[in-house]
Amino acid sequence: MAAAKKTTKKEAAPKAAKVAKEAPAQAAEKAPQASSQQHTVSAKDARIGVFICHCGTNIAGSMDIEAVQNYAKSLKEVAYVDNYQYMCSTPGQKKIDDAIKDHKLTGIVVAACTPRLHEPTFRTATKEGGLNPFRFEMANIRDQNSWVHMHDREGSTEKAKDAVRIAVAKAALLEDLFPKSVPVEKTAMVVGAGVAGMQAALDLAAAGIKTYLIEKSPTIGGRMSQLDKTFPTLDCSQCILTPKMVDVGRSPNIELMTYSDVESVEGYIGNFDVTIRKKARGVLTPKEAEARGIVGGGCNGCGDCDAVCPVVKPNPFELGMKPRKAIYIYHPQVVPLIYTIDFESCVKCGLCVTACGPEKRAIDLESQDELIKVKVGTAILATGYDIFPIENKEEWGYKRYDNVITSLEFERLICASGPTGGHLIRPSDGETPKKIAFILCAGSRDNTGIGKPYCSRFCCMYSLKHAHQITEKIPGAQAYIFYMDIRSFGKMYEEFYYRIQDEGTKFIRGRVSNIQEDPKTKNLYVMADDTLLDRPMKLEADLVVLAAAIQPSADTNRTRKLFGVSCSMDGWLLEAHPKLNPCGTTTAGVFLAGVCQGPKDIPDTVASAEGAASAASIPIHMGEVELEPYFAMCIEEKCAGCGMCVNLCPYSALSLVEKDGRKVMQVTEAKCKGCGTCGGFCPGGAIWMQHFATPQIVAQIDAFLLGGEQ
Amino acid sequence: MDTGGHEYAFYLGCIAPNRYPGAESSAVKTSKKLGINLVDLKGASCCPAPGAFGSIDLNVWYAMAARNLVLAEQMNMDIALICNGCYKSIWEVNHKLKHNAKLRDGVNTVLKEIDMQYKGTINVYHLAELYYDPEIAGIPAIEDSVKTPLDAKIAVHYGCHLMKPRKDREFKFESQSKTEQPMWIDELVQALGAEPVQYRNKMQCCGAGGGVRGYDIVHSLDITNEKLINMREAGADAITEVCPFCQLQFDRGQIEIQEKFGVSYNIPVLHYCELLGLAQGMSPQELALDLHGISCEPFLQKVL
User: Fold this and answer.
1) Contact at 8 Å (CB) between A382 and A388?
2) pLDDT at A335
3) A522: buried, middle or exposed (CB in 10 Å: 19+, 13-18, 0-12)?
4) Cβ distance A96 to A49 under 8 Å?
5) pLDDT per position as a tens digit, A574-624
6) A596, A609 in Cβ contact below 8 A?
7) β-bridge partners, B157
8) Of A10, A293, A307, A383, which sees the most CB atoms within 10 A?
9) How far apart are CA A105 and CA A109, in angstroms?
10) Residue B111's pLDDT is what?
C-alpha cells in the first residue's frame, strides 16, 4: 500500500511541481482584479494556526493526537498548534480567538468533523479573533478518517497528518472574502396542500407572509381527508381537517392554486422565479368569471353539471370504489368547491354547459393550460406520499383475490362518507366480514428487494384503530393482527395498544408467508409462523387488510429536481441535518414539511410543517440574506471573450458584455453557485473561482502528492 | 448434424434416465423439432442432489457440480437440463463459482486431483427456459410444431428449485421473475392447445424436495395430497412439470397415497417434454408413457 502510494507521488511530482511554481504568479496577477480592500497573502507570509479536536473519543480514540500535533508543528507555514477535547465548545472556540490575537495568525485550520457540521461555528470563531471568516479551512479527520479506520491507529494517524498538511496548504493561500447580501422577496410558496402544506401555509399567512399554495389535484386536504378516524383519540379526520381547509380557502394571505403543477424554478434564496402550470380545469371560479365580464357567474358547486354528464369514471379519491363523472368533485367537502373537467374522458357533448345555464356560465370546454409566473423568497415542499404497489408482494394476492384490500381502501369502506356509507363489506359478495386479518409491515421493513427497507411508521397505529373500529361497528366480529413488533411510540399510543388488546383483538407475532383464496367461498387462508408459540398457523379469514408501505408520491422526484433538493436512497427528500435541521435542505431557501421527508403520523407531520413554516419565514422577516461569496470572477485582461463558459453555466449566471471595445465575460454573482464548471473549462485561465482558486487547489494537490517536500 | 445452430450439452440427471426414460427421450426428440440439438454429456455424475448433498456438506456439492460443469466446458458447450434439482445444483454452483474467486480456487484445488480445472466459460439453462425464449425456440415455434392440439385441462407444477430463491435466479424475461404467481410455463402449455388451470396454492412444494421424501414419507405425501386435492378441485385432466423428481412424487406418490391414506386420484403426470411430444405427434410408446405409475390411458383417449 505504502509502496504504491510512493510510486504515484513520484510519477505525478514533476507535473504538479511545475503547476505549483506558476501558482504564486497567478495569485499575484489576480490581485489587482480583486477588490482593493482585499489584501492577498502569499504562502510565504502565512502564519497558520492548527487546532486538533479529539471529539471526545470519536477522534482521539482512533489516532495519536500528539503525533498529528507534532507533525503539524513541523510544517513551515504553521505558527501555532493546539488540541482540545471539543473544539466546537466555548473554550475550544476561545482558543482560536486567543491564538489569532496572540500569535498574529493569518489563517486557521481545524482538524475535526465535517464542514457540513461545524464550518459555520469555526468561521465565527475565526471572525471573533479578528480574521476574515473565510480564512478558515477544515480538515475532516473524523467522518472520513477515525470513523472509517477505527481499528487502524497507525494508518488513521498518518491519514490525519495528510489531511492537516493539505488543509494548511490551502489555508496559507486563502483570501479575505465578503458575502453579498440580497433582498428577500416577501412571499413564500408551499408545494402540496395536504395537512402539512396547509398547516405550513396557514402559519406563513398568519405571520403576515403572502403564500402561494400549489396543489396538483383539484382539492386540498391530501391523504388526511381520505381517512375516517385518527388514532389514538378516534376523532373524525374530516371533522378536524375541514375547518383547516376552509381557513386555507379564505385566508387573505394564501393564494390557493389547485389543479396546478410547478413547471420550472429559477433563481436562488430570496428570489425564486417559479412558473406554475395551471391545468385546464374547464370550470371558472366566480373570480375568473368576473374577470371575463360574467358578473355573478362562475361555479357555485351546485352539481347540476354532474347530474347530466353522461361519462362515468372511477373516483380516485375513493380509490376507484365509487364512480364520478367527467365533470366532478372528489367529495362534498372539497376546497375550493369548484368542479373540474377530466378532459381525457370528456366527450364535449355540452350537456353540462346547458345545465350550468346562462347566468353562471361557469363551464368553458375550450379552456387551456395556463402558465403563471410568481416570485417568492422561500419555498416549502410538502409533496406527501403514495401507497406502495403492494401487488408486487405477490404472495398476498392483492389485485388477484377480491377480498384482499389495502388499509386505505379500508378507511374509505369504514368511513360514513365513503362508497358504502361506512358499512364495511367484502368486495367479493358485499357481505359483512366477521373474521378480519390485518397484516402489518406489508412491504415495509422488507429486505427482499421488493418492498421497502424502512418502517412506514404509522401502520401499527392505524391498524390498531381499524381493529377497534370493526369491534365497535360489527357485532361478533373478530380482528386478527399479524405483526412483527407493535410500534406505539407516541403520546397515548401505548395506552391505545392496551385498550385494543383488552377489546379482544388477537395479536399474532409472525410475518404472513402466503395467502390463498378458497375459489368457492372467496375466503382467504392466511399462512404464517406464530413465532411466540413457535408453530406454523393457517387462519381462515373473510377479509384481509394489508397495511401497505408508503413511498414518496409519484411527482416527488420531478419536483425535488426543480428545486435542487436531494433525496436519500429510498427516495424521501433529504433534510439538511437529520437531527438539527430536519426542515431545511442543502438548497438555501427550500424547506421540507411532512411525509415527503420521511414517514410521519399526523401529529409529527403538523409539527414538521410548523417547523418548516417558521424556518421559511426567517429569511423573509430578516429582509435580506447573505450569499456565500463562492462565485466565479472574470480576470478581464485574460478573457478572450470566446463565450464558451456562457453556454456551459448550468445556472445561466454568465454573459458576455462589451467593455473597452471588446467582449468580456460577466458574472451575475447572485445567480452563480460556485460550481466551478466555467473555471475548470476556461481555456485562457481567465476565471477565478473564489475560495476554490486554481493556486489554492493546486497547492492542496501538491501538498498531498509531494507530502510537503516542495 | 445441422439443427439451426443451437447445440447444448444435455445433462440428464438421475431420475429421468432411471425412472422416466420418456422424459429423457421426449426432451431429445421435441427439442430437435424446435431446432435445438442436445448432445450427450458423457461421464456426468449425479448433479448432486441439492437437498441431500447440500444439507450435509456444501463442499462436496460444489465440487461434484463443478466436475459436471467442467465436462461441458471441455465440450465448449452450454448445458441444457430437464430437472429442477439439477438446475439448482448445476446453475447455482456455476453462478457461485463465477462470482466467488475464493470458492473457485477451493474447488479447483479438489478438481486438480483428477486433472480438471473449472474455468467458468459456459452457461446453464433449463430446457424449459430455452423453449420459452423466442431467440432459441419460443411460443410461436412451439405452436407451429404442434400436430395434435391437446384439448385438456392441465395443472402446471413449477417446482421450487426452478424459481426460488428469487434473489439467486437470473431469468431472461420479466415474466419469469414472478415467483409467486408465475405463468410462463402455463403459456408453454397453452401453446399446445391445452388449458392451463389455476388451482389453489399453486406454488406449494410437491413434497419430495429437501430430503423430505427420504426422511419422512408420510409427511411428504401429506403435502403431495394437499396439492392433488387442489389440482383435482380445478378439474385437471393431467399434471405437468419440468422436474422428474416432482414427476416421481406426483406419479409414484399417488400410488403411495392410495396405499397409506386410501385416497385415489388417478391424475396422470407428464413431464412438459412428454406433453409436447404428444402434441408434436409422437406415439405414447415412443414417449415411454406406459412406464408411468399412474396410467395415462384415459388422458390419451381424451386428447388423441
Assistant:
1) no
2) 95
3) middle
4) yes
5) 999 899 899 999 888 999 999 999 999 999 999 999 999 999 999 999 999
6) no
7) B241
8) A383
9) 11
10) 97
Which of A394, A449, A516 is closest, CB to CB, to B201?
A516
Say which residue the cell 386428447 belongs to.
B303
Q: Please indicate whether, in this complex, the C-beta atoms of A400 and B181 are within 8 angstroms of each other.
A: yes
* CB–CB contact A448 B166 (8 Å): yes
Which residues are within 8 A (CB) of A381 and not within 5 positions of it... i.e. 6 or more apart? A191, A192, A559, A560, A563, A565, A573, A590, A591, A592, A593, A596
Using 50, 70 and 90 to split pLDDT, how confident is the model at A12?
very low
DSSP string, A205-249: HHTT-EEEEE-SSSSS-TGGGG-SB-TTT--BHHHHHHHHHHHHH
pLDDT tens profile B103-131: 999 999 999 999 999 999 999 999 999 99
Count Cα neighbours of A55 within 13 Å in the Cβ-side half-sphere: 19
Q: Do B180 and A394 touch (CB under 8 A)?
A: yes
C-alpha cell at A236: 373524525
**Do B233 and A448 make contact, defined as CB atoms within 8 angstroms?**
no
Listed residue (A445, A449, A448, A466) closest to A457, CA to CA: A445
Nearest residue to B275 via CA among B214, B189, B196? B189
Total-model pTM: 0.81
What does the alpha-carbon distance between residue B277 and residue B271 come to, in Å, rounded to a whole number?
10
Of the candidates B53, B41, B37, B33, the one whose C-alpha atom is nearest the C-alpha of residue B13 is B41
Contact B229, B254 (CB under 8 A): no
Beta bridge partners of A49: A80, A108
CB B73 within 8 A of CB B43: no
Distances (CA, A) of A530 to A482, A498, A546, A618: 9, 20, 18, 53
* Cis status, amide bond into A179, omega within 30 of 0: no
Query: In this structure, how many other beta carbons lie within 10 angstroms of the beta carbon of residue B100?
Result: 13
How close does chain B come to A597, measured CA to CA in Å? 30
Question: In 3-state terms, what secondary structure has residue A528?
Answer: strand
ipTM: 0.75
**Cβ neighbours of A395 in B, within 8 Å:** 180
Model confidence band, residue A21 (pLDDT cutoffs 50, 70, 90) = very low
Q: Are A260 and A214 in contact (CB under 8 A)?
A: yes
Beta bridge partners of A260: A278
Q: How far apart are CA B84 and CA B50, in angstroms?
A: 10
Which chain B residue has its CA at the smallest distance from A520's CA?
B233
Separation of alpha carbons A24 and A43, rounded Å: 8
Phi and psi dihedrals of A590, rounded to 5?
Answer: -115, 130
Beta bridge partners of A245: none
The CA distance from A503 to A469, in Å, is 11
For residue B68, the Cα-to-chain-centroid distance in whole angstroms is 17
